[in-house]
């Protein structure tokens, strides 16, 4: 494990960690509010009151403006911003992505960040946008690799160095880039050029990009998702293993009169009520906020409160082993987020390697839950059960069950398991009495596999009349199938 990053707790791919920097230790996952050195809606020295432990600003903007540069070189970055906690600096890659060029070299901006005392330094990488030709993505990735290798040799000492992972929307390039950077031992790994995916709600592709990069990196490396500032997608990104986010959304949205919630964004002019208990929403009514002279600042403050409230809930969910339940709730806030959730579970085999083997009670939240890592893990371990003699599988207690050599309980989406394990995770799951098709498909498939793995046992399956599924016919070929309402009628 990296000496600067300590993992304290885990759930799915998410984790609570401690990131050590020259200006203090930061608990992750967390958000770094973006501070524009020219315009500050909220003074940086007030950010801690919202929950911010670390900020991010743009070293290129500071470098290009004489009055900012001179103060930063004289007083340091922390003196310029008036913030005594950790500060990360971007290199100008965002301006490069927007304008096509910047008036600084990689070495110059690295040296400047080092001189002004940045806690996390970012090289001038090439942010390749989505959907470009593969050859362009490959060529720009090669340039980025050269610059990052130069940066790794250039930056020494206590300051942390970030190694951005690029590769456009090509998962194979993202994983290749991550594997290369892993061997160079960077301190933080930002995933770059993903803002266009988030702006166009392409969450399924974003999931593939994150997963590919994570698979190439060490599982103990801290990962930063560049430009991810809306709380409705934090849980999904954390479940994939992202530790740091940066948010300019709190200020950008406020300027446009937009009010952030975890379920989406509202325009303040269309709100009659403020659905939030933060200090701003508790003090003002919707009408008062609309008419306030400092409406922009108040909205920015609310947006920050909403942002960090979600971070705290995510951390508690990790502690409780409930992160995936939160992810499934959040991803139902928007159809495109639901696409992201479905894509997340296509990576369940990888997530299962990261997910703790024991944790809190499993809650079934919908069809996607049937593909969770816990369910996949159970399916892989069916061969551990060795059954002989007569065996009965049932959903709830039935007459005469004790006369069988083996008693198994059927619970979707898992399937059949020995009754002795009923109170053991994950079989203590809270599930619907009448499972949906996806849960029933997985459960019946696992049950059929269990029967086939134990040819020395004679199975009787007492199931509910509501269980209508094609797999029941296959089970009927290998076991006695009886519906509960017809079981041992007198």
What is this structure, in a nutshell?
This protein has 490 residues and is α/β, with parallel strands linked by helices. It folds into two domains: 5-354, TIM Barrel; 367-484, Rossmann fold (3-Layer(aba) Sandwich), CATH 3.40.50. The chain has helices at 59-64, 66-81, 93-99, 106-116, 134-154, 171-182, 195-199, 203-216, 234-239, 249-255, 279-283, 286-291, 295-320, 323-330, 335-344, 348-354, 373-380, 437-453, 471-478; strands at 5-11, 14-21, 24-28, 30-35, 55-58, 87-90, 120-121, 160-161, 189-191, 223-225, 244-247, 258-261, 264-267, 389-394, 406-411, 415-418, 457-463, 480-483.
Describe the structure.
The protein has 490 residues and is an alpha/beta fold. It has 2 domains: 5-354, Queuine tRNA-ribosyltransferase-like (TIM Barrel), CATH 3.20.20; 367-484, Rossmann fold, CATH 3.40.50. 41% of the residues lie in helices and 17% in strands. The protein contains 19 helices and 18 strands. The strands form 4 sheets. An 8-stranded parallel sheet has the order 8-7-6-5-4-11-10-9. It has a 5-stranded mixed sheet with strand order 16-15-14-17-18. Strands 1-2-3 form a 3-stranded antiparallel sheet. It starts with a strand and ends in a 7-residue tail after the last strand. The mean pLDDT is 94.
Key structural traits:
490 residues, TIM Barrel, Rossmann fold, 8-stranded parallel sheet, 5-stranded mixed sheet, tRNA-guanine(15) transglycosylase, TgtA, metal-binding
């Amino acid at each position: 494990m990296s000496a600067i990053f300590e993992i304290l707790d885990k759930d799915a791919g998410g984790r609570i960690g401690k990131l050590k920097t020259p200006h203090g230790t930061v608990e992750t996952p967390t958000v770094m509010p973006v501070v524009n050195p020219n315009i500050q809606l909220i003074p940086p020295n007030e950010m801690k009151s919202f929950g911010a432990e670390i900020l991010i600003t743009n070293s290129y903007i500071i470098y290009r403006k004489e009055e900012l540069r001179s103060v930063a070189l004289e007083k340091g970055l922390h003196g310029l911003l008036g913030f005594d906690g950790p500060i990360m600096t971007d290199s100008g890659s965002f301006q490069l992505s927007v304008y096509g060029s910047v008036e600084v070299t990689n070495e110059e901006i690295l040296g400047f960040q080092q001189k002004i005392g940045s806690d996390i330094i970012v090289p001038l990488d090439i942010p390749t946008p989505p959907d470009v030709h593969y050859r362009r993505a490959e060529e720009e990735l090669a340039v980025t690799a050269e610059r990052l290798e130069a940066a790794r040799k250039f930056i020494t000492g206590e300051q942390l160095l970030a190694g951005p992972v690029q590769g456009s929307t090509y998962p194979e390039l993202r994983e290749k880039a991550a594997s290369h950077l892993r061997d160079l031992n960077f301190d933080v790994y930002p995933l770059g050029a993903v803002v266009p995916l988030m702006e166009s709600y392409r969450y399924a592709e974003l999931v593939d990009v994150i997963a590919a990069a994570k698979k190439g990196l060490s599982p103990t490396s801290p990962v930063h998702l560049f430009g991810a500032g809306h709380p409705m997608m934090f849980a999904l990104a954390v479940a994939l293993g992202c530790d740091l986010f940066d948010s300019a959304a709190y200020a950008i949205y406020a300027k446009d009169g937009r009010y952030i919630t975890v379920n989406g964004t509202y325009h303040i002019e269309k709100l009659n009520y403020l659905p939030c208990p933060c200090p701003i929403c508790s003090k003002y009514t919707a009408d008062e906020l609309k008419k306030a002279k400092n409406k922009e600042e108040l909205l920015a403050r609310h947006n920050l409160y909403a942002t960090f409230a979600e971070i705290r809930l995510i951390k508690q969910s990790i502690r409780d082993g409930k992160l995936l339940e939160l992810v499934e709730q959040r991803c139902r806030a928007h159809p495109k987020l639901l696409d992201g959730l479905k894509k997340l579970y296509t990576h369940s085999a990888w997530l299962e390697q990261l997910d703790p083997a024991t944790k809190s009670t499993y809650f079934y939240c919908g069809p996607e839950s049937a593909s969770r890592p816990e369910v996949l893990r159970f399916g892989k371990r069916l061969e551990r059960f060795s059954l002989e003699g007569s065996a009965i599988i049932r959903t709830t207690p039935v007459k005469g069950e004790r006369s069988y050599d083996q008693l198994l309980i059927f619970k979707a989406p898992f399937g059949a398991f020995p009754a002795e394990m009923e109170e053991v995770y994950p079989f203590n799951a809270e599930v619907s009495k009448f499972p949906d098709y996806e849960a029933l498909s997985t459960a019946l498939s696992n049950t059929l596999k269990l029967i086939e793995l134990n040819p020395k046992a004679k199975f009787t399956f007492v199931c509910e009349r509501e269980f209508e599924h094609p797999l029941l016919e296959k089970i009927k070929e290998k076991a006695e199938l009886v519906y509960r309402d017809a079981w041992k009628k007198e």
